[in-house]
Amino acid sequence: MTILPQKARVVIIGGGVAGCSMAYHLAKLGWTDILLLERKQLTSGTTWHAAGLIGQLRATANMTRLAKYTADLYVKLEEETGVATGMRQCGSISVALTSERKEELYRNASMARARGVDVEEIAPAEAKARYPHLEIGDVVGAVYIPKDGQGDPANITQALAKGARMLGAKIVEQAKVTAIHQDKGRVTGVTAVVDGEATTIACEHVVNCAGMWAHGVGAMAGVPVPLHACEHFYIVTEPIPGLGRLPVLRVPDECAYYKEDAGKILLGAFESVAKPWGMDGIPEDFCFDQLPEDFDHFEPILEKAVKRFPLLAETGIHTFFNGPESFTPDDRYYLGEAPQLRNFWVACGFNSIGIQSSGGAGMALAQWMQDGEPPFDLWDVDIRRVQPFQANKTYLYRRSVETLGLLYADHFPYRQMASARGVRRSPLHEHLKTRGAVFGEVAGWERANWFARPGQEREYRYSWKRQNWFDNERDEHLSVRNRVGLFDMTSFGKIRVEGRDALAFLQRLCANDMDVPAGKIVYTQMLNERGGIESDLTVSRLSDTAFFLVVPGATLQRDLARLRRHLTDEFVVITDVTAAESVLCLMGPRARDVIKKVSPNDFSNENNPFGTWQKIEIGMGEARAHRVTYVGELGWELYVSTDQTAHVFEAIEDAGADFGLKLCGLHTLDSCRIEKAFRHFGHDITDEDHVLEAGLGFAVKTAKPGFIGRDAVLCRKEAGLERRMVQFRLTDPTPLLFHNEAIVRDGKIVGTVTSGNYGHHLGGAIGMGYVPSKGESEVELLASSYEIEIAGERFAAEASLKPMYDPKAERVRA
Ligand SMILES: Cc1cc2nc3c(=O)[nH]c(=O)nc-3n(C[C@H](O)[C@H](O)[C@H](O)COP(=O)(O)OP(=O)(O)OC[C@H]3O[C@@H](n4cnc5c(N)ncnc54)[C@H](O)[C@@H]3O)c2cc1C
């Protein structure tokens, strides 16, 4: 009979590829007392039946870095452990059937090159030469990645488990975790059942690697882990004589992938409307199970596949497979420490790429657990992006129908989710809707992204070229620059920090000086010990003891977690007041004229200069008027109690009619801010970007003692910058920048664009990105010639270290 230990340093829940990778990587870092508990047998959840495609290219630099690490690890693992992983770097081909898909593939190829992934754009004939069975009549382009590969998921997992055991980790099968214990907000142990006997194991850390069970395991700890299982289908053919060794083939326009293995073809599907599974819970005895086949569901994929790969028509199907896998609301997995519970970690929700992700995910999370901070920017997959409501099962069910297919959907810029919408709405939602708003979603919030003209279709028409709202954005943008625009930014995260020690607390967390008189607003960052940016925010001092923090809607949970984690025995209360107030941003050279018409207060530079707030009367209600801007113009962010929002909006709208006021959407906010080179958290600035290299040194007060990250700032000042954030403008007004395009300096790729949009005032696409500049002066940096590579083509770019729009900030202080 198995006897469980009474204590461990870390308990890993789940013996799939993710759990075994966690055990392996923690052991590699020298952790002892690692205990992995698996309710049935290793690999018996989703891992055993994965197709085993192991690609290297992901949507961002660090995700690509992790996928590359995975591929290299699986190659080495066999030698280290003696367990064959079946890893074969057979290469992969992705083909495009439309010009839009070709643009996506070729843009990805440029990005891949910038990230050191070997990649070739190939003509259809060359794709045929590498994949003779492929029908290429309608193929318009293809990309070949020589080092992509495939492996055997069960064996990879066994190899990771063996590697972990060789370093002392203990793995116990048939041990189900039934409870997670905590005290004072920190994990203290788990209860696990073996042979009907429950044992409580004290531990410092728990890692939730429970795959599609992770939602339930999270719930045991009070931690939302939003994911839902869906059915995922593939078939395996009978052996095909003379098939030969083939690369992996992806035909995303037909939702299909092909893997050759031992003379057979595995054909898998990422259909656009998926079948959620497990709504009533996953059966207790689930172990190496498969789900019933559904030929009707798979048939449309198969029909196209037979035309694409005519040999299939003459081949019998040996296996029809259907297995469950977990999908998250944004199609990205979860990594990191749960904001709700200290030392409760997650590595789950792999959205069909768990085999190719788990090596890197295990490495990154192990390092994070060791250091208490992510080793590099992992915001894409960070669990702190989760909104608590997202654990709602109805929401997850509805969204999961869409997410499976997203893997092979066109990944157009600005693409919005179509399902499970409308959960969080501003009090102005209906007002904006009747005025033409076309909404997008962030963190569950519906936000007006652009405003359609009367009679214009209120839908996105996606493209890699100018989309159907390009002219709407231009009109809105130019209104903000020349007259006045009104934005609904209610989705901002709002946090009150108050109490006797609030000032001292914020002085420690923020890099700027918070010791300002009540009425002042301070733009600041919260830094980590490396000088990286954890949070980008404004702080308004409300009184001696109360501060009001404004953060992006998408980072609210992360920012709350950071504040709460750093609270010691200080007398401070932190309250999320996001839903209490709406935010109306009145921006543009005529903003003062409009506000003066609806408010008797004094909005002069003397009374209400840039960087101050005042309480005002507005219409028949009241608001706090914050003189700040994210679009680079004179303007006010008006914080209005939610019950008065509609009234204040109507009053401003009436008053604005005389001054050409235009309702503006989030796309315009972004196009304006990028002209002004205002950084965007998550793209331009992250926890791995040093605040000085990001060009935000002006907001760091090193004269202030004791704030987190101060030493790192002083060190970097002393040692000099290694890279700098540069703003680019394409001189050709036609091409568009989104992000991830390659930055080319004097003919050599040196980085990627961190964010891009169209500068309607500056007359061309604007991008930002880091350029290595070790030992160089600003003059030397700018003396180079710059180009941006888009889908393989290079375009000349003007470069600047100062904002190209209003470099002296005269407009904001007007
Ligand atoms: C048909 C199909 C094809 C796929 N093809 C690919 C591919 O080609 N490439 C790729 O990268 N990915 C692929 N995937 C996805 C990949 O298989 C998964 O992402 C990956 O296996 C998930 O691993 P995991 O460790 O997170 O989950 P799992 O393998 O499900 O492991 C979770 C484990 O946790 C255990 N557990 C749950 N609750 C408890 C508890 N309370 N106590 C103890 N143990 C518990 C379960 O028993 C289970 O073994 C495919 C998936 C499917 C369905």
Keywords for this entry:
814 residues; 9-stranded mixed sheet; 25% helix; single chain; alpha+beta; globular; 8-stranded mixed sheet; binds flavin-adenine dinucleotide
Short structural description:
This protein has 814 residues and is an alpha+beta fold. It contains 18 helices and 38 strands.
Description:
The protein is α+β, with helices and mostly antiparallel strands. Helix content is 25%, strand content 29%. It is built from 18 helices and 38 strands. The strands form seven sheets. Strands 4, 5, 6, 12, 13, 14, 15, 16 and 17 form a nine-stranded mixed beta sheet that branches. Strands 1, 2, 8, 9, 10, 11, 18 and 19 form an eight-stranded mixed beta sheet that branches. A six-stranded mixed beta sheet has the order 29-30-31-28-22-32. A hairpin with a 4-residue loop joins strand 35 and strand 36 (764-772). Helix 1 runs parallel beside helix 8 (354-371) and helix 14 crosses helix 15 (645-656). The model has no long low-confidence stretch (mean pLDDT 97). Bound molecules: flavin-adenine dinucleotide. Flavin-adenine dinucleotide binds at residues 13-19, 37-40, 44-47, 49-53, 176-177, 209-213, 217, 232, 234, 323, 325, 348, 350, 352-356.
